[in-house]
Amino acid sequence: MAKIPGKSETIENAESAFEPSMATEQVRAVAEQGVELSKEAFSKLESNVETTQKAFESTLKVAKTTRNEVSLKTIAALRANAEAGFAHLEALVAVKSPSEFFELQAAFVNKQIDVSIEQARTLQAVMLRAGEDASKPIKDAFEKALKDLKAA
């Protein structure tokens, strides 16, 4: 027994309380727990990577579809504008007076402004829908990852 200076109590030698077999078991238990936690973390990471990959693939698919749709709508608008322009030129050739020319020209310009506004609205609607559709898989994956983090 050792006596602590200034104390009337005695304590037993600390070396006699140490058991190497218990320490080995405790270290092994901590190491096994660390391995299990690492496996769980890796599994979650792998799952999140797969989810993110699927989200990006879905986004790229939507982008490709949207690109095709925008291209087709743009070609249709260009065709309609060209046809309207040719029809207008044919009408201008048949004009008999300057006042008829200006009247015809003003009507054409007003109509083309209205058509252009409608074409722009159509393309805007396609692009807005595409943005929402393209961002949805990534948004869902992000929300799932956040939920998983909060649950952990």
TrEMBL record:
InterPro entries, alphabetized: Phasin, Phasin_subfam-2
Domain Phasin: start-end pairs: 57-141
Region called Disordered, residue ranges: 1-23
Record NCBIfam families: phasin_2
The protein's name: Phasin
Organism: Mesorhizobium captivum
